[in-house]
Design goal:
21% strand, 2 domains, Nucleotidyltransferase, domain 5, 280 residues, 9 strands, Serine Threonine Protein Phosphatase 5, Tetratricopeptide repeat
């Protein structure tokens, strides 16, 4: 192995196990290639822990010293069991990164309660007026990971949610096609169909946006992204000047998710009569 390139260590942290996948780069006549060494796994049981990541962190602390001392840089993939996600509606009232982060924390707090005040948050890159995916994780887990890797003398290059890592692995093959991304830890999670519907809204193509949102409703009537889908339907109906239908669906959204962060954007649409802050 050339000393020019550090070893790579990919670490998966799950409630019941920790996986360590070491790799190195090798220069040959065919160019630079990546060679994956023997994977290493450690079982643990975090099911009875108040914080389900404690056992995994302890197992990682025991396993890491074996991989130190080789100019190793690590990337950690965090189980979706430790993560929380929400889609943040676009708002022209947010003018800085600090305001966007404060809005994200407000949304998480409304959904998950006061525990979200101490979570570490990350937002996906901005893309026009489309919603942004926000992720949250216990800040104690992040601090614990940094402490364990620091004690082992291994630089921690990146900490990624499993969802992000899975998407990055497949995004090159998705192109512009509709796709369903399933991360089989917590069930199926679709992002692409809703994203395309919001893109249609950005193009002022309300017919396409409404059609795509209805497809999602038919497949996943009570799925994880139900609130985001309903918000898309409401805005599409407003775009089609079907105000009464939009108001009916808006009242349903308020009923099933009275703390939804999407209500702020909905109340600024056609469903609210001028001079009022309430859905009619």
């Amino acid at each position: 192995m050339s000393p020019l390139w550090p070893r790579e260590l990919r670490v998966g942290v799950f409630p019941d196990r920790v996986t360590l996948l070491p790799a190195r780069r090798r220069l040959s006549w065919n160019g630079l290639s990546r060679v994956v060494d023997e994977p290493h796994g450690v079982s643990c049981d975090g099911a009875t822990e108040e914080s389900p990541w404690h056992a995994a962190l302890q197992a990682l602390e025991v396993a890491l010293p074996e991989f130190s001392g080789h100019r190793t840089a690590a990337t950690v993939i965090l189980s979706n069991h430790f993560m929380r996600y929400t889609l943040l509606p676009w708002s022209d009232k947010l003018s800085s990164a600090e305001e966007e982060l404060a809005f994200a924390r407000h949304c998480f707090t409304r959904i998950y309660g006061p525990h979200a005040e101490s979570w570490a948050l990350r937002l996906s890159p901005e893309s026009g007026t489309a919603p942004r995916l926000a992720s949250a994780v216990d800040v104690e887990l992040i601090d614990g990971l940094r402490g364990v890797f620091g004690a082992a003398g291994i630089p921690l290059k990146s900490i990624q949610p499993h969802l992000m890592a899975a998407y990055n692995s497949f995004r090159g093959g998705l192109g512009r096609h509709d796709a369903w991304l399933a991360v089989l830890e917590q069930g199926n999670l679709c992002l692409a169909l809703l994203r395309r519907a919001r893109t249609a809204l950005d193009r002022r193509d309300a017919h396409t946006a409404l059609s795509l949102a209805k497809q999602h409703a038919a497949r996943f009537p009570r799925g994880t992204l139900r609130q985001e889908r309903m918000a898309t339907q409401i805005l599409a109906l407003c775009g089609l000047q079907r105000t009464e239908e939009a108001r009916v669906l808006a009242r349903e959204l308020e009923r099933v998710a009275p703390r939804s962060p999407h209500l702020m954007q909905i109340r600024a649409s056609c469903v609210t009569e001028e001079g009022s802050d309430e859905v009619r």
